[in-house]
Amino acid sequence: MRQRFAQTKLTQKHPVLMNQLELIIFAGADKNKGNEIYITMANQSPEASSSANTVERTKKIVSMIFEEEDIGFEEDILKNPFSLRSWLRYIEHKKKCKAPSKQINLVYERALKELPGSYKLWYNYLRFRRKQVVDKCPTDPAYKHVNNAYERALVFMHKMPRIWMEYCEFLTLQRLVTQTRRVFDRSLRALPVTQHDRIWPLYIKFVTSHEIPETTIRVYR
């Protein structure tokens, strides 16, 4: 009830701001993406920010409800959409307010839409997403959502060994042997030779802990 009241007050006090801030969230039914969040500004067509397949499989559309306390932060990022500091302040605000994880995820996604090349944003976001599944069974669909986030991060962060290392460790926990091996191989192809020593210890530990002799021999060679 308080949220609805806050939304009404925001609309009355800041009609232009609310018009710009209204977001549409697509909870896709794509088997590879689960309920991953896709965001588009209200004045854009859905096709402009998501694939045709995602739009076709959209199950529901909901409007994000802003808290009154968010107004200052929203105005700040509207004025400075490419300011990393502004986005980090907003995210920290949502965490301090103990906002639901989905709301914080959404702010991260919006920030990454504006700053896809920010290592700090991706790294913090991935860590935050991993914390959300720490108490879940590795077979829970939520793990696939985190895997998808890593894959999206690597489109921009493929030269960052730490992202590869943590992704490989995360996949190892899920016992996805084939997928983990392929990601290790991709990391070695993507990273410069001078950074391979960051990957090899993890890779060797992985292959020796699973019954995959052919891969073990190849890795040792």
From TrEMBL:
Recorded superkingdom: Eukaryota
Any one GO CC term of the record: Prp19 complex
Residue span(s) of domain Pre-mRNA-splicing factor Syf1-like N-terminal HAT-repeats: 69-221
Record keywords: mRNA processing, mRNA splicing, Nucleus, Repeat, Spliceosome
Localization annotation: Nucleus
InterPro entries for this protein: HAT (IPR003107), HAT_Syf1-like_N (IPR055433), Syf1-like (IPR045075), TPR-like_helical_dom_sf (IPR011990)
Main location class: nucleus
GO annotation, biological process: generation of catalytic spliceosome for first transesterification step
Endpoints of the signal sequence: none
PANTHER family to which the protein is assigned, alphabetical: PRE-MRNA SPLICING FACTOR (PTHR11246), PRE-MRNA-SPLICING FACTOR SYF1 (PTHR11246:SF5)
Sequence similarity: Belongs to the crooked-neck family.
Name of the protein: Suf domain-containing protein
Species annotation: Onchocerca ochengi (Filarial nematode worm)
